[in-house]
Amino acid sequence: VSKTKKPKISQDKSLGLSSKILRRDFLNSTLLGAGSALFSMSSPIALSAGSSINDELYMNLPQQVKDDWYGYGGIGDSKESHGNTPDTLKVAHAVRDSAFNLENIKNLNVLEQYDLVIIGAGLSGLGAAQRLKELDPNKKCLILDNHPIFGGEAKRNEFNIKGQVIAAPQGSNSFYYKTKYDFDEDRKYIKLLNIPDEFSYGEMVNNSKKLVFAQENYDVQMWGEELISKGHFVDEQSHDIDSQWIKNIWKDKLKRYPVSEKVRNDLLTWKYTKDMPKDDDKTNAWLDNMTYKDYIENVMGLDEEVTKFADPVLASSGGMGCDVMSAYIARLLGMYGVSPDAPVDPKKRHSFPGGNDGFARHFIKWLIPHAIHGDNNFEDIMNHPINFQGLDHPDNSVRCRLNSNVVNVAHTNSGDNKSSVEVTYYKKGKLFKVKSKAVVMATGGWINKYIVKDLPRSHYDAYNRFNHAPMLVANVALTNWRFLHRLGITACQWTGGFGFHTNIRKPMHVGNDKPSLDPNNPIVLTFYVSFEKANQGYTAEQQSRLGQYEMLAKPYIEYEREIRQQMVKMFANSGFDVQNDIAGIILNRWGHAYVTPTPGFFYNTEGGPGYANIIKSTPFGRISFGHSELRGYQHWGPAAAEGSRAVDQISHYL
Ligand SMILES: Cc1cc2nc3c(=O)[nH]c(=O)nc-3n(C[C@H](O)[C@H](O)[C@H](O)COP(=O)(O)OP(=O)(O)OC[C@H]3O[C@@H](n4cnc5c(N)ncnc54)[C@H](O)[C@@H]3O)c2cc1C
């Protein structure tokens, strides 16, 4: 990790770092003197000596980060839960470092008994609970999640900007519907949860420039960009040219885009080729045993610059670049050359105001009708506050318990005679134990291998081959977007610096909440920032570690500085006022955002099932594994279906 020079205070002032914005609530030290975060990636964690063994064991785990790390969380129900919290970091790393004493855990009393315990309240955990309730609504189920709010990657941030409440996604962003790409699972859940299948969005008043807006943040990063008013920013650093915006680069076959003739032709071949590999098992297995970089450069014979162009887009959807991700996952993610260039009609790409938290909220309402105040309709489910007490009420058949970090999952008997499972979790400094007939692990590979005791070697080895990529999702609230209007663009892409893409999302109408688009009014820009280290010779595992370290080690203020510098560079000439236009910034840091399928994830070299399959197909006694990573391609409906499948695998125990 390279060291950066400390910026001068005068530079910070001109960047508006001393302006009054929504950011300071959690910064205990003075802003400009904030120290760097402490992040002990590998140091062993010692427990405080002499912890007594009782039902409420106090664990004095050291904090992983300082007060200047987390930053502002916005308003509303998710204000204390944006990205991974300091508490989840603390406990997860203590688990990794074997800080919990197994003898102590063994001696804890069981406090409650359930038919099924589900670990993880993301979409896969919620899908698991939905399946159980469908099979038998009287079964007693407990969902445990380590964050202060359910949803996993599908959560929202909310800002109050000049009296206007605007939501934005913390992670999972969008969905498509009524397209040929729909997953059957998406359709099934949209119907089951009674989610509307038509949506309306705010339009721009007085749109004399005929600006076209995306309805979400992903398709516009590449596939649908020709259909949107998008500009690419190029400058001396990125392209050895005076800084400028180039609008709609594909319109004239990249003539205005500053690359060599060869690279231009190769980029066009990559994007428009009709020569696709077949879509059968044999071909897919072949694709899954090479990297996407291999495919672009060796199979298609294109320039390395094409790979570099593709890197940030692939990383935005899968966490890492073309040099480690398989060509088959690239195909599943719709990358050019392996997947036809057929953009989904942008009107069929949707994003709820807070991203896919809309699905999580519908699931929880279906499972626990009083979990969200108000009636069972779209508007109330989306806009009403969560009834946190009702989530874990003893009368519920499904209970959802938050802030509960599971640290140990163990069968009560070893060998073939596995009669139940005990689950131990850490909550606010204490350990608790519950017992269940069976358990679904709806979490992620990075943690399952540490918390499931006596995990079979086959599963452990398979999980060890999973690599996880971090992502930072930064939501930047703006008082206005006149600078974009002046430029005549609604979406922006650039190379180098902070992030690579951002765009205005049309606001979805929810009930009577019907915002429109006006450059003089507030918006939130979402930046999806990967930490890919492509083309530097690192393995996926090294890229994962380096990326996680880089993302987690910086204090909030450093990201704020980078965001401001990036925006000044691109927008100052069109009137962006860095001292006044930013109203607030929320950082959502996800340490294990995506699993990054490397070659062999889906298919082995003989064309048989790949390394993820053993975990998916084989429960360990009464413990089954159902999380979105096991599909490789992480998507909301299939995530819920993975949870559902995991319930079916152990339902005979219930
Ligand atoms: C940046 C980003 C953007 C994305 N965009 C989209 C998109 O636009 N559309 C789309 O369909 N999908 C998107 N996804 C994919 C998304 O991850 C899946 O769709 C889905 O939401 C994942 O659900 P999950 O339940 O498998 O995992 P998660 O959402 O990660 O849920 C797992 C839960 O388990 C909890 N947990 C972990 N360990 C423990 C423990 N020890 N104890 C208790 N709880 C624990 C976690 O904190 C989390 O709450 C995106 C993902 C990321 C990272």
Task: Give a brief rundown of this model.
The chain has helices at 9-14, 86-96, 102-106, 123-135, 184-192, 236-239, 261-272, 281-288, 292-299, 304-318, 327-332, 357-367, 378-383, 388-391, 445-451, 457-464, 482-487, 540-553, 556-571, 613-617, 636-650, and strands at residues 110-119, 141-144, 156-161, 164-169, 175-176, 230-234, 244-247, 349-350, 398-401, 405-411, 421-427, 430-441, 468-478, 491-494, 501-503, 523-530, 582-595, 623-625. The protein is an alpha/beta fold and 654 residues long. The structure holds flavin-adenine dinucleotide (FAD).
Q: Explain this structure to me?
A:
The chain is an alpha/beta fold. Among the domains are: 100-146 and 403-465 and 609-654, FAD/NAD(P)-binding domain; 259-342. 29% of the residues lie in helices and 17% in strands. The chain contains 21 helices and 18 strands. Strands 1, 2, 9, 10, 11, 12 and 18 form a seven-stranded mixed sheet that branches. Strand 1, helix 4 (123-135) and strand 2 form a beta-alpha-beta unit. Helix 4 packs parallel to helix 12, helix 5 (184-192) packs across helix 21 and helix 15 runs antiparallel to helix 16. It is globular. The model is unreliable at 24-58 (pLDDT under 50). The chain binds flavin-adenine dinucleotide. Flavin-adenine dinucleotide (FAD) binds at residues 119-125, 144-147, 152-154, 171-175, 218, 356, 405-406, 442-444, 447, 451, 471, 473, 528, 590, 593-594, 627-628, 634-636, 639.
